[in-house]
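Exercise 7. Given the encoded structure of a 624-residue chain, write a plausible sequence.
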């Protein structure tokens, strides 16, 4: 077993605190704690038993909390959803080559989503004399090669002394815009190395990622001039909502200009109830545009392109004379393996800056220019009237579609979306994933929790685990988390249901024949003590204590899980609406009521009833 060598001196006094590590993996866990990592999603494997042991037994109870998953793809997708919901990074634990290969699909998805994830994998031992049989088969040279094309950084610290630096670098790179997943391979010998000298845990604050950059002053002036002078400016919002701070100035900018807004990704950016929101009339809004302000749009050709795209025939729907301003940090990115930014479109004012920093500055300049022009108030008012007219017509079309297809058998998408909308409005809820082209026409979204986006990599199997990860992120908020997931997508990682972040989660298969309501109690971490806990002797009794805790949790098991097939699938979604005092009773009750409803085939109202939109646009725009 390797011993940690000298090197603590490189951490001068004041930049860290004394480590209590007895093993290399204890130090790894100390650094994870220092970085504020709350959760690690994992499927256990002997290649990181050292890390696993430290998570359980080293100063137990301090975290990160383990989220047990039945597949590494699920673990990484879960971390993706969590980061998109909270803006915070989660770690994953991936067994050597085999776990990494399972995880690779989800790592690729996270790469295309620009989502930060700290993937930690086991490997080795690189010292071949320490290998057991499978270690030979499961150790790659170099393991990070398997995912290098779609992580921002990968590393393999080769001693205990190199661990802290590797973790801090990986964290900083992952969390610096444009963000992305990283991978660190942890050699088993480094994890299991005994620490026989004082070590330092560096203060993470001193190695934190830099805040996003502001705009180039000249570009900012050009952008504000173009917008203030435009006849029909349109704002296309992409991933701008990843920082909720960017959204109030976006709303104010749209109001000041009287400009139409198109929400181009699943990530929430602008209330769908606001009369300037022309997302559902995209082509109509863009056809007449003389200026487009694009905000963090990963692939401009998608919102600016035609709805039906055919091979060899890509033609933007904006006029050739339309001036495009694009604020994005993706130009700073190195990427050649996959061109997920798609077509290269002309951009007249490119700005490599953080939208959360630029939007307040842009708003200020636009307001000044509009105030200086005596005609602008009237122009803005006229434009707004026109946009409101298009908004009303579009809404009417959507309403007609919903009413026309309401009673279709099997249940129509419009009915599914409409029913969900009726049940969530006025409640504290989150839309943790959305599937189907037309959900925006029936589901009102008014705040950042109403759209996570993600899944740009197009790898099926993402919806369920990422929804569970997002629900984990919303755990403390009390929000009801709703995921609308394709049946194909769902079935590819349906075992993610085993993972339970102890949060209420309604999941609808969009094939509209089945609704699944799960209400489960935590059984995560059930394996941790049994599979890997206490494989090495420690001076503390905490290991056996934690094992007793685990068995108590395991006995809790699933409280209920109801899979309901009926003529009226939506009715099974109701139990979560009525909250009762004790969660135990609530869960038991809801499972019973789902089952009895399924038996009797209770029908939901067959009439659309009150307007599905519930709240009038004017009411909602002020609260947004
Ligand atoms: C990992 C992976 N395998 C296969 C595909 C190809 N694929 C694209 S869509 C799809 C079916 C998705 O079904 P569902 O989620 O039900 O969506 P639907 O198109 O039915 O609305 C498949 C298999 C993929 N995108 N990713
Ligand atoms: Mg399907």
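Solution.
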């Amino acid at each position: 077993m390797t011993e940690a060598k000298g090197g603590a001196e490189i951490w001068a006094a004041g930049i860290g605190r004394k480590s209590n590590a007895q093993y290399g993996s204890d130090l790894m866990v100390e650094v994870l704690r220092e970085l504020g990592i709350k959760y690690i999603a994992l499927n256990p494997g002997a290649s990181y038993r050292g890390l696993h042991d430290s998570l359980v037994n080293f100063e137990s109870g301090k975290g990160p909390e383990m989220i047990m998953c039945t597949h590494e793809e699920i673990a990484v997708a879960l971390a993706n959803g969590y980061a998109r919901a909270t803006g915070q990074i989660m770690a994953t634990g991936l067994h050597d080559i085999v776990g990494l290969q399972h995880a690779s699909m989800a790592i690729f998805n996270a790469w295309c989503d620009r989502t930060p994830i700290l993937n930690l994998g086991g490997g080795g031992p690189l010292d071949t004399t320490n290998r057991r049989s499978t270690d030979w088969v499961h150790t790659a040279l170099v393991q990070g090669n398997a995912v290098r094309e779609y992580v921002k950084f990968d590393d393999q610290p080769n001693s205990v002394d190199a661990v802290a630096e590797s973790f801090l670098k990986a964290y900083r790179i992952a969390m610096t815009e444009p963000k992305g997943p990283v991978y660190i391979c942890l050699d088993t010998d480094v994890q299991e190395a005994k620490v026989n000298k004082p070590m330092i845990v560096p203060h993470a604050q001193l190695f934190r990622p830099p805040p996003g950059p502001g705009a180039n002053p000249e570009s900012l002036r050009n952008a504000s001039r173009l917008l203030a002078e435009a006849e029909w400016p349109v704002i296309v919002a992409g991933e701008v909502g990843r920082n909720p701070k960017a959204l109030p100035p976006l709303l104010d900018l749209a109001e000041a200009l009287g400009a139409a807004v198109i929400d181009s990704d699943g990530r929430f950016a602008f209330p769908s109830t606001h009369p300037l929101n022309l997302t559902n009339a995209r082509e109509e809004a863009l056809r007449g545009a003389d200026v487009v302000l694009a905000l963090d749009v990963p692939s401009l050709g998608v919102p600016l392109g035609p709805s039906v795209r055919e091979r060899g025939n890509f033609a933007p729907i904006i006029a050739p004379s339309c001036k495009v301003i694009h604020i994005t940090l993706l130009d700073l990115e190195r990427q050649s393996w996959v061109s997920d930014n798609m077509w290269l479109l002309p951009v007249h004012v490119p700005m490599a800056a953080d939208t959360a920093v630029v939007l307040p500055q842009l708003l200020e300049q636009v307001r000044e220019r509009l105030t200086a022009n005596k005609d602008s108030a009237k122009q803005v008012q006229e434009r707004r009237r026109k946009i409101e007219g298009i908004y009303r017509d579009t809404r009417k079309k959507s309403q007609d579609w919903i009413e026309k297809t309401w009673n279709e058998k099997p249940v129509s998408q419009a009915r599914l979306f409409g029913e969900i909308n009726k049940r969530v409005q006025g409640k504290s809820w989150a839309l943790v994933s959305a599937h189907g082209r037309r959900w925006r026409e029936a589901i009102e979204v008014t705040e950042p929790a109403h759209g996570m986006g993600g899944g740009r990599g197009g790898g099926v199997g993402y919806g369920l685990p990422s929804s569970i990860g997002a629900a984990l992120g919303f755990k403390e908020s009390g929000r009801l988390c709703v995921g609308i997931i394709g049946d194909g997508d769902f079935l590819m990682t349906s075992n993610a249901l085993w993972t339970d972040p102890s949060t209420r989660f309604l999941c609808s298969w969009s094939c509209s024949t089945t609704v699944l309501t799960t209400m489960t109690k935590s059984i995560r971490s059930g394996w941790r003590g049994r599979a890997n806990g206490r494989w090495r002797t420690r001076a503390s009794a905490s290991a056996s204590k934690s094992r007793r805790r685990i068995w108590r949790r395991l006995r809790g098991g699933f409280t209920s899980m109801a899979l309901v097939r009926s003529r009226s699938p939506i009715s099974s979604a109701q139990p979560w609406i009525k909250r009762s005092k004790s969660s135990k009773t609530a869960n038991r009750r809801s499972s019973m009521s789902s089952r009895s409803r399924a038996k009797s085939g209770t029908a939901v109202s067959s009439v659309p009833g009150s307007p599905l939109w519930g709240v009038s646009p004017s009411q909602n725009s002020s609260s947004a």
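Remark. The first strand starts at residue 16 and ends at 18. Students should compare their own answers with the one above.
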